[in-house]
Amino acid sequence: MNQQKRLYQLIYVAIFFAQGALIPYMTLFFSQSRFDLSPSEVGTIVAILPILSIGVQPLWGMLADRTGRVRAWLVLAMIGAAAISITFLFATAYLWIVLLMVAWSIFQCAHIPLVDMMTLDYTARAKIDYGAIRLYGSAGFAIAVFMMGRIADTPWGLSSTFLLSAIVLVLGSIILRRIDEPGLARTTTVAPFAWSAVWNVPFVAFLIGGMLVFGPIYANNYYFGIYVTSIGGSTTLVGTLFLVAVLCEIPFMKVAYQIVAKLGTVNVLAGAAFISAIRNGWLALEPPLLVVWILAIVQGLVVGLLIPVALQFVRSLVSLNVTSTAIGVYMALTSGLATAAFNQLSGIIIEVDSIIGVFWMYTAVSLLGAALFLGMRRFREKG
């Protein structure tokens, strides 16, 4: 059992390391002069992954629910993303980059919902805290952004992000195959699929609030680097601040369920969303660098609470036989639709105003999401 737990932890390290090596630096990479792209074109490129996630992530979830072969689909998705990511090193034309991003995104968007579904099944059987495994993803992300911040300032440059991400994904797929297949088998759904089992009123209400809260959080991962460099920071500082934020996620993920037990799920979700709004508003006021460091810690608190609590809340709102699909829908609309919309909107705001205007927008939307979460008190959690 301990060996299996360690394998799950290593999978999270690999998947989130690969993301941490790419996502925070993708906007900076495509903003280089050699590509000659406008901010709105860069915004379109980085919006492709979340846009495709809207339709593709639920399909991955449905495949998992219908076949019970979560591990096999995840191995395919990791190898596919690794292979395609290498081709970005040779792309310079805008159309070519867009086409590659579409192909890469189809595989990339499957990683988190599928590994989360595997882990939730395992933790339920083994009676292990999901956060104790998920926090290794935060550690992998933190290591990656810190390493890439250092590497990006060397002659290797930002291009090395794609190569490093591909290597780690291949290694992760090898580790994944060592996880016991019987432990991953799920009951195959043989009855006609019923969307009504997913689209219940509490779940839909949660999705709306989740899009308003998680959209700015995920878009921040793309645009925080531009914010830091706009106030005079270096690429190394971007990586270090991401490192601080992600490392601070770990202790809060560890205690998230204890906090929920005392305060309640909805109160924790709403409180974290409100703190996220304060953090964005403070950044929009262009505080001293010391405050930016403190706000990186605050970001870790917010994400460390929201991710595990929201995921478990999704499971409580739907039937067991559609859990994978519900998680796919949740990921598609929060890390997909909302992130795409805020990535695109952020690029437009930068063109007509500045990066400061982007964070004022994040503040307003996060406050609205916090209010919607509070409004969910009238919905009773199932079970």
Plain-language structure description:
- The chain has a single domain (2-186, 194-378), classed as MFS general substrate transporter like domains (Growth Hormone, Chain: A), CATH 1.20.1250.
- It has 13 helices and no strands.
- It has helices spanning 2-30, 39-67, 70-86, 94-108, 111-126, 130-152, 160-176, 201-230, 235-263, 265-284, 289-317, 323-352, 355-375.
- It is mostly helical and 383 residues long.
- Its main location: membrane.
- Keywords: Cell inner membrane, Cell membrane, Membrane, Transmembrane, Transmembrane helix, Transport.
- It comes from Exiguobacterium alkaliphilum.
- It holds the Pfam family MFS_1_like.
- It is found in: Cell inner membrane.
In a nutshell, what does this entry contain?
This protein has 383 residues and is mainly alpha-helical. It has one domain: Up-down Bundle (Growth Hormone, Chain: A).
Summarize this structure as a short list of keywords or feature phrases.
single chain, 383 residues, mainly alpha, Growth Hormone, Chain: A, 13 helices, 80% helix
Topology readout:
Blueprint lengths: L1 H29 L8 H29 L2 H17 L7 H15 L2 H16 L3 H23 L7 H17 L24 H30 L4 H29 L1 H20 L4 H29 L5 H30 L2 H21 L8
Helix pairs in contact: 1-5, 1-6, 1-7, 1-8, 2-4, 2-12, 3-4, 3-5, 3-7, 5-12, 6-9, 8-9, 8-11, 8-12, 8-13, 9-10, 9-11, 10-11, 10-13, 12-13
Pfam family, one: MFS_1_like
Subcellular location: Cell inner membrane
Membrane topology: Multi-pass membrane protein
